[in-house]
Amino acid sequence: GGCLGGVAQSFAVTPFELVKIRQQNLKTKIGVGSLAAARELTARLGGGVLFRGLGATLLRDGVPHGVWFVAYEWSKRALENATDSRDASDTRASQKTTAIPLAAGAFAAAAAWGVGYPFDVIKTRVQASALVSVSPNGLMEKTTVPGVVQTARLMIAECDGSVVRGLYRGFGLKLLRAVPASAVAFFAYEESRRWLG
What we know:
This protein is mainly alpha-helical and 197 residues long. It has helices at residues 2-24, 34-45, 54-82, 90-129, 148-158, 163-167, 171-196. The longest helix has 40 residues, at 90-129.
């Protein structure tokens, strides 16, 4: 289920992320709205430009979404089994219903992004390279955009052959955002399930 959801999501988010990267890389002081940026891109580079980076997005969202849910369920069960089931006091039970989903959700995010992060970095590079070709007169031009494997090799080569430095740049910052978000999301999910019966 998680993998399928991640694949479906990829088709929806790829155009938005490309436009976001375009807006982040503009060298003007005046902001360009998202719709205007999308129109400009498609007018100058064709409609297909909005799906540049789809391959890397599929890899970033497909398998890691499956890993996210599997890691959550595995760690939740492991934590439940590790806690002392003989202590059934209300305080202890309340602590377990709070701590276990938070900890399992945090672990799930770290595991999922550990798998998917290199593809996020590659996707951003592929999408940015699809947008950088600007002629001297300021017009964007169509170019050949490197694929996932070619981009990964280039990024690793830029870091003297280090896969970790090449493909995990900014990983710590990603975890600073993703781990708490995942912990809170799974806690909210479990609380909703508990309240709804």
